[in-house]
Amino acid sequence: MIIESMFHSQLHADYDAFLDQQSRRFPTKETLRIDLHCHDKNSDVPDELWGRLLGLPETWLETKNLIKTLDRNGTDLITITNHNNARSCWQLLDRGYDVLVGAEFTCHFPGSALSIHVLTYGFTPEQETTLNRLRHNIFNFTRFTLENDIVTVLPHPLFFYTHKNKPDISILEKFAVMFQRFEVLNGQRGYWQNQLTRHWLESLTPEKIDGYARKHQLNPNDFCSDPYEKSFTGGSDDHNGIFAGRTGTLAHIPDLAERLIHTKRSELVLDAIRHGRTVPYGEVGKEEKLTVTFLDYFSQVAIHMEDPGLLRLLLHKGSLQDKVLCLGVSNAMQELKRHKYTLTFLKTFHEALSGTKPALLNSLGVSKEFRPALKVIKEIARAQRKQPDNFLNVIRKGIPEIYEVVTRIFFTRLNDHLAGVGDNNFSELTTDELIRKFELPTHFRALFGGEKSTDARSGISSGISSGISSATDDMTTFNLSKMLDSLTFPALASAVIAGASFAASQVIYANRPFLNDLAENLGKGQHPQKILWLTDTFADHNGVSSALQSTLKEIRKHNYPIDILTCHSQLKSKDHLIVVKPMHQFRVRSLGEQEFNVPDMIEIQQIFERGSYDRIICSTEMVMGAIALYLKKAFSVPAYFFMHTDWMEFVHRTMSLTDHESDRIRRLLRAFYLQFEGIYTLNTDHQTWLSSPEIGIDAKQVFLTQHWVDDTFQDHLKQVNSNPINSKQAKLKPGNVQPINIKSSNTKPSSTKPLHIKPDYSKPILLYVGRLSDEKGVFDLAEIYACVKTRIPNAELWIAGTGPAAKQLEIVLPDALFLGWVDKQDLPALYHKADLLLLPSRFDTFGCVVLEALTCGLPVVAYHCKGPKDIIEDQVCGYLVEDKESMAAVITRYCQQPTLQQGMRKAAMTRSQEFQPEKIMRALLRDAAMSDFQGETGHG
């Protein structure tokens, strides 16, 4: 279930109330409905660079189809505001239509990268030529319109083109002086932008306008007949003929019925706009509207796009990056055209959006698994044709349903396809093999339809299988064409819907920094500062899950503006924890028993938008890492990464890669980390590494943070402090010893059962707590323990934890006591029974077990590396050593000095108190640029 935030619901309610109030300003019988902002196929030269590079018009919409939609949605008069031309209006006038002549001119500020659109009405063909000449200087353009009594409206005043430069809010001061009429309701912009436009216009006073005029040395009377009387309009900004007329303007014409006898509607409406007798009506550009708009546009691109020409593309204006990306789009689209059945599907979907029943798909035949999607498409067509008032509700529910259906089918078919290629399918590839073989070709045809080839070593032919093993031993012969043949509908439909949804959010929130500045300036409409924290793991037996569970408790305790989101099949959502169900699950061999869940991307996007989040923290690099970057780009928000895992150490410990192959991992990590506004790291070694030339992140963007112990340990410490007893023997008197709940040492824990351990105070107990896996260095314990036993024969080694190395470890450590999985609430008792905690890992980025042990008064011996060296004060509350021999030596020395042990136990508890959760969390929020936490200093 998606829960709307208070900001989201209140924003919608306030703006809807404003529209309702506006609609009641004029008598209904004295108003005419007109959509003042819509386009057809004569908008053929787009402002967007990619459209010009690829030779794509803004729409292929026929004029007659636009008129049909306007009529269906109840407009009383036609205007078509194509970019920089009124060709459609002139053609309709020639055919006898009563038309309000209009166009949307792209105007430029001289000496600036800034350009804006200006809706312009009531001009002649000769004046159109002059306007096109003057539009390159907005000041001359607007002066000319006033002098010639041509009406202008500034559309979407908070969205304009700055060529990737952040606009200065002072541009609105010039708009306030230069324009009299403003589009306060745009059907392709969201509630927040439309509401802020309204607030800004309502804030303008004659004194402010005069002040802006003086500041910018502009005379308002050069541009406006009455610069202090601002009026409101609305328009659909429709390009596809789907929503035209559903958003627009009510023009008030007193004595309408009588005046219509002798005067054209176009003249009456133009006069009403000129004198400010207008109010907006209709629908705001919610995300589902824009998603449908982009879905339709993508479908038409696939149907109509022609090869733009390589030479033309390369010689066009634009950056090399834009040209390379457009070249890739062109290749993908040209190959897509080879799949006729897919094109038929896209065409049918496009027709359904205009109300045409998808009968063609029935004649082609649709498999049973696709019928739910076809049913939704039929409902969309029927709603557009017969229930236009319900159309938005149908697409709001229907598009996510189609996405879910086709995405699930895609994963099902992909599994079947991969399982069919034999022993070398992707699910069985080790991480080493994937890294070695992954590459993309530099020649596009190899990607889409290379010749069939067979690898002599494996006998696997080209296609998906050739990506696994080929003559070049990499994936450069991966054959996308064959894959599309197998996965046509689900792969393409899923990608197109996700892409359309992404583009919709990107359009709505593209200028978020500017909107934030404006809201702050107005003191109204400020978007809340709220974090969505993404993670692939939350309920697993690993350090990341444990840390995040403690974080969630702290979030709830102080009601921090953070929600954690994870994907899991069994967990349930609760306060500050959002759980989405997986659409697909997979494992990667050599990453252990961790299962990765693929969520519904559309669902997460809706959660982010309706939950009013404005920044992201991500804790895992896998699925949620990709989703974090998707949301960052879609919603124009900052994203931060919390680095829990040392992947370079993991690679070194678990994979047999060459230096070149290991370096590829580093480069991939660098490319990933550089996408984030900041990286949280748990130790100074990683802080230095991340800001070094190897990764290249600005040191100001690398934030040192910490973990803290769970409340279980804090509660235990309070009990100890209330009754301080410093000797281990006193604490473990028979009768006071609590049973420890343990589970078997198998990778999958068995049911919990109590284990009563009667302590033998003459035997020092060495303890290891953690995951039993190779990268944790657990096999070092065998040599360390053997060395200690030569000096202290009665020393015991207890091992608590599970993992893939459990069985092998039991073989090499036959004398150790394996406790299996120990529940968190029982760990304090276990730490009390031990004399020293051993941490033979060089993998830990922090070492939560170190802090847990210190909190319980248990000193720790660890390797002098990363996390542990930032926690342990050497020879004060524990030991930092360089190798196995040194670890065995300090263990022996420590166990033979009872007086030293007592002092170090006290020091351990003292050190643990420096890691306070509230201080750490507030520093984390400060580093995420949360305003309420700025000015605070220091970490835990």
From TrEMBL:
The keyword Transferase applies. The keyword Transferase applies. It comes from Neptunomonas antarctica. It comes from the Bacteria. Keywords: Transferase. This is Glycosyltransferase involved in cell wall bisynthesis. GO terms for molecular function: glycosyltransferase activity. Residues 762-908 form the Glycosyl transferase family domain.
